[in-house]
Design goal:
The chain is α+β, with helices and mostly antiparallel strands. 48% of the residues lie in helices and 22% in strands. The strands form three sheets. The protein has a five-stranded mixed beta sheet. Strands 1-3 form a two-stranded antiparallel ribbon. Strands 6-7 form a two-stranded antiparallel sheet. Helix 2 (46-75) packs across helix 7 (192-203).
Length: 231
């Protein structure tokens, strides 16, 4: 076994470094896939849909790696949690830009409803990661439409990502907390993404209130809805 002069090797150091390397490589791959999509924008091109599916899977793996890294850093008290005031219009534009290529491949229309001149305090990177993930899932499972709604409800900032797909299965709606669910070896669903989103929301606290996440079916489009609220 490899050892230092005085103590055993801390494998977590290598795991964290490996996650960084894999994530960076996947980001390069994703950028190349987006270039291919731009060059094959004609939906009649046989490769168009296939490249879109590869992009989705690659983005999903990259997001999972980043989520694992953030959860690790939060658990160790190493993440530089830094809520700042942000313009939600700018935030929305950036979030939509992250899913544009996937939506283009799947011919999905993304609609945005955001109150004008809306500002709020939150950790931009954490919340962006959660919302982009929800948008990606919406684009993946919708029939044709995804809607991002942002506004104030009951004194909280509310993000809603809705789609017109089949909605969430009953098992997911019954057990909202991902940590209490098992792992599906059939679908490969670990619940990591939802757990990450719940952790992100809970990090945001103000005057005795903390952020929340939940899943619903119905909404304005009749499919699934991911909801995140921040105090």
């Amino acid at each position: 076994m490899l050892e230092s002069d005085n103590s055993p090797l801390d494998i977590s150091t290598f795991l964290v470094a490996s996650i960084h390397d894999m994530k960076n490589s996947l980001c390069v791959i994703n950028a190349m896939l987006e270039d291919v999509i731009d060059q094959t924008s004609d939906h009649c091109c046989p490769a168009h849909e296939s490249v879109g599916q590869v992009l989705y899977e690659s983005q999903r793996v990259a997001a999972n790696l980043l989520q694992l890294l953030v959860i690790y850093k939060l658990g160790k008290g190493l993440y530089p949690f830094d809520p700042q005031e942000h313009d939600l219009t700018d935030f929305t534009l950036e979030a939509i830009s992250r899913v544009t290529h996937l939506a283009q491949c799947r011919a999905v229309n993304i609609h945005v409803e955001c109150a004008p001149d809306l500002y709020w305090y939150f950790d931009r990177e954490l919340v962006l990661g959660a919302i982009v993930q929800a948008l990606n899932n919406g684009v993946r499972y919708t029939s044709s439409k995804v809607c991002l709604q942002i506004g104030i409800k009951d004194g909280m900032l509310e993000f809603r990502v809705e789609d017109n797909g089949p909605g969430y299965p009953a098992s997911m709606l019954e057990e909202q907390l991902p940590a209490t669910r098992g792992i599906s070896f059939t679908t490969g669903n670990t619940g990591l993404g939802l757990y990450f989103s719940s952790i992100v929301a809970e990090q945001h606290q103000h005057r005795g209130r903390h952020g929340t996440t939940r899943l619903e079916n119905g909404g304005t489009l009749g499919g699934g809805a991911f909801v995140m609220t921040l105090p």
